[in-house]
Amino acid sequence: MAKSFDCVVIGAGVLGLAHAYHLARRGKKVAVLERHPQAVGASIRNFGMLWPIGQPGGDLTDLAMRSVDIWKEVLDEAGIWYNPYGSLHLAYEEDEAQVLKEFCGLPEARGRRLELLDPSQLTRRFSSVRAEGLKLGLFSPSEVCVDPRETIARLPEYLHKKYHVQFFWNTPVQAIDSPKIHTNHCEFHADKILLCTGSDYQQLYPEAFASEGIRQCKLQMLRTPPLPNFKLGAHLAAGLTLRHYKAFTKCPTLKELIARFDRDLPEYHHYGIHVMASQNGLGELVLGDSHEYGDSIEPFNKELIDELIIKYLKKFLNLDPIIIASRWHGVYAKHPTEAYLIRNPAPGVTAVNMVGGAGMTLSFGLAERAVKALLGESYAD
Fold this sequence. Notes:
InterPro entries: FAD-dep_OxRdtase, FAD-dependent_OxRdtase_HpnW, FAD/NAD-bd_sf. The chain is of the alpha+beta class.
């Protein structure tokens, strides 16, 4: 016998959970179908950084800030750990310091409550920062740390208890003939079907994405054991990160900085490495990461990438030795030009995907936007 719901969400990663939340709190009867026993993809294989400062201003920054606000409401209600300790970009070269100054002067930086800190201010506030060669730092209070493993594991229980969302694990979707959803267990019926399948986007309606130029991106990451006596104090990033995020592209000195990196650190560009650190509620440092695209992706990690990450990390992290307890990689799908995709591959079916490396940051804001459009609500509602 078929199971009937108002809405069925396919995929229990962060985007799927965010859509389930926004639908259920509007009174919809919601089911989430996940083909694994639990979410195992990119949603649990990241830093846990909610990172508005990386967005390039305008609508995406507004969306990220809205998303972070919703995240906090949800995490508070669910009793799940998070730390709103902000982010710190560190400059150890003059061109890096100049980019930070230029960024603070951009129109999109207004209202972000940014602080430029000199070396003495930095070392007084952040004992985790290496003092040697330090020239300047940029502190932003907007960024939040979550533990993706804990968060993605516990949100389903919260959604079930508070909003009666039903979860069906080990339930791969075989085909969709809207409003029918055929699975290995039974048939589901829903007026509205949402696909939030991440890097598995080709399994259902592959033709809808065939001409988009989507690429897969593999990242390598590391984690230390718990460090109860070491406090990071903020998400840490340094010069390489200025190259990675679009927020800094309007800074005039960025081209000079990139040219220096290409000349002096070519391997970092080849593997798409920029180096950051976060600290979760267990006291573990999460470190990374790299970006290998398309045909470069293979199932085996490269030890050289991990070595390069740790080598650069030692330039700005005041921790010696850096002991690694675990290593892993993740894969996400990325559109070449768009920050995300919302498509309707069939009547009654909406696909929300391709958030790239900003899935944790944009998820709850993007899901709110998609759900409002789906239900005919105004963005301003």
